[in-house]
Amino acid sequence: MRHREQGLVLIIVLIFLQILFLLGWSALTMNTLEIKMNRRIWQHFIMQNLAEQALMNAQRQIDEHLQDCMIAVTDDLAKKPVDWWQAFPSCTDNFQTFAYYYLIEPLGEDPCAYVDDKGQEVSVDYFRLNLLGLSQTHAISVRLQSTFIKPHVGATLGCHEAMHRVTIGRQMWRPLI
After folding, report:
1. Among 136, 151, 148, 123, which residue's Cα sits nearest to residue 96?
2. Alpha-helical regions (H) of the chain
């Protein structure tokens, strides 16, 4: 009778060990999945920051490439494929491990908005800057859009409302989804 009890204890211990092993394996699997998700979130965060820096860089280059990169106002830029963006070769640059493409949409003149440019009040033009950023090390892309103001060049339309002062430069930016 004593030998049977020792065998039963062995089987119970083996069952408990198997349960503990399965619990440990489950915890390890969940932690591995969480690490992968956090890595992807971190990579996206880095890409977002690089894209924002690239957006600022593109805004500085706008005076050089304004006409080359100008397109008509376009719907669904977020859905355009990469090769569509690559059709504009003068509107691209690299920033660290990040390649980006940018295009400018003219939104029109606001004759009632003005800036004080060198002691002279001038009206303004609104533009939208669209950016597609591609990671060269990861399969991540980021699409940003920015609205900015430049002083108007040439004859201005007449204002029939109250004048309002605006600031030259970026007005806002947002991610395109």
Report:
1. 136
2. 2-65, 82-85
Decide: helix, strand or coil at residue 165.
strand
- What would the pLDDT profile of 17-42 be if each residue is shown by its tens digit? 999 999 999 999 999 999 999 988 88
Q: Any idea what DSSP says for residue 70?
A: B
Distance CA(109)–CA(152), nearest Å, equals 7
Contact 105, 72 (CB under 8 A): yes
CA contacts within 13 A on the Cβ side of 82? 9
What is the SS3 assignment for 103?
strand
Burial of 136 (0-12, 13-18, 19+ CB in 10 A): exposed
Per domain, the residue ranges of the chain are: 11-175
Dihedral class, residue 76 (left if φ above 0, else alpha if ψ from -120 to 50, else beta): left
Specify whether the CB–CB gap between 165 and 133 falls below 8 A.
no
Phi and psi, residue 68, nearest 5°: -65, -30
Q: What is the model's pTM? A: 0.71
Cα(5)–Cα(17) distance, integer angstroms: 18
Helix (H, G, I), strand (E, B) or coil at 114: strand
